[in-house]
Amino acid sequence: MSSNRPKYRSEAWFETKEIYGWLRQAALKAEGFTESAYAGRPIIGICNSWSELTHCNANLRQLADAVKRGVWQAGGFPLEFPVMSLGEYNMLPTTMMYRNLMSMDVEESISANPLDGVVLLGGCDKTTPALLMGAASSDIPAILLTGGPQLKGNWDGKELGSCTDCRRYYQELRAGRITEKDWVEIQSSIIRSAGHCMVMGTASTMASMGEALGISLPGNASIPAVDSRRAQLAETTGRQIVSIVDQELRPSSILTIEAFENAIRTLHAIGGSTNAIIHLTAIAGRLGIDLPQSIFNELSITTPHIVDLKPSGKFLMEDLFYAGGISGVLREISSLLHTELPTVTGLTLGENISVGGVRNQEVIRTIDNPLNPEGGLAVLTGSLAPNGAIIKPTAASAELLCHRGRAVVFENHEIMLQTIDDPDLDITAQDIIVMRNSGPIGGPGMPEWGDIPIPKKLLAKGVTDMVRISDARMSGTAFGTVIIHVAPESAVGGPLGAVQTGDIIELDVPKRRIDLLLEESEIQKRLSGNKSVKQHYKRGYGRIFTEHVLQADQGCDFDFLRG
Length: 563
Fold this sequence. Notes:
The protein is α/β, with parallel strands linked by helices.
């Protein structure tokens, strides 16, 4: 360790005239540590979102041990602590409701304790952005380490990706094209190892964003959870956090506007999750950086989609790892990136990606032979979404990207579920399904309800996709011609609340438009007659959420947490 190192932040906790400095050292000795274990060493927090309620993060205990090895090797003193864990499958009404709460837990746990640096252990969808939001706000040296993707599933000789294929086969079950026995077999075949979803869903996307931002080490996004190289990466991360503490390399010096531009281009190149737009906006907001919806469109136009992964393609994260990982993707699109930016390796992004390369051009296409000439996501605006709405064209049906249809409106998610399979439902494949009251306030929490099921009567006729619009989100693993994140949401007076069954809606993705074909005066007349918003919570965190959450185009963070 350097002899001319900076004074450690943690020393202020121990070098105090108060008795508490003495007591803090006594407390460490009570845990079995001698003075030589911590004296003169940087204290490294291991911020662990492990939980048995979050199966995606179930391997983080083992990774924490590997991080500790690295910290000890580099001369640091590791101390592990728990933070809230957000399990996508179990939490109601949605983990998005609690992302901000977890970020506050992370920020306060870091800020209130004698920590000089922190390794952020996450994996499941909202845990990674929550960790980065909290770390950005506390702004002490930090490195992100995720648990890694699961191994491929397999059923009936077909490779499965959770949960893209669970959604695909659920439609097949509803249509009667697979049996209940098949469905049970798929359940036992689709998740066969530790780790998060192995498609390019939100978990994989946000891990990829970590690499593109420069806040995680190369390889973090794609090394499978159960591969021994994941533990090796964790050990290396433990060593590196000690190094960047001595360099005083903070998140604010890494997470710049140029770094976010790199992340947005990478998001488009990988065909990443729609949720990443909300999360990147929120992380940037913690640093006082504005990411308007327009920047996502501007960078999409000049960024080709080159990664052939489900749900926008056919391969899985394990294949991406073998093909060169996110480093290979970054190298392929390097001419579009700010490669001079600093990263947690202590090197620039360009230096990080100068080694290795693409090993399989079926999985990672060349920039001159892309899957799509433009990026994987698009922001739509128009009379139905004045502040924006999101679609993933790479996971949509090409023939529906320009479509005009009759609206069939559901007032909320509960009514939709009750009636979507009614054989008497007046609906055709050319109609457009609209669901409202599903946003940040209306949901509440903006649940992943946007992937509205195709009516059973249409599935039976062979219909596999139709245009669906809501102010909800959808899982990054989902697919279809789905327009989500409509802002402002219907519950706060957005135009979605004016739509009536029979109205005509026009979608034009190439022109980035979504319009309700009514006069503006008629839209405002209808909105003025809408009832007041239902109050979901009278107390506790739910009340804080509904009183302070921002809209989707602002990242759904709390107004008082933005930088």
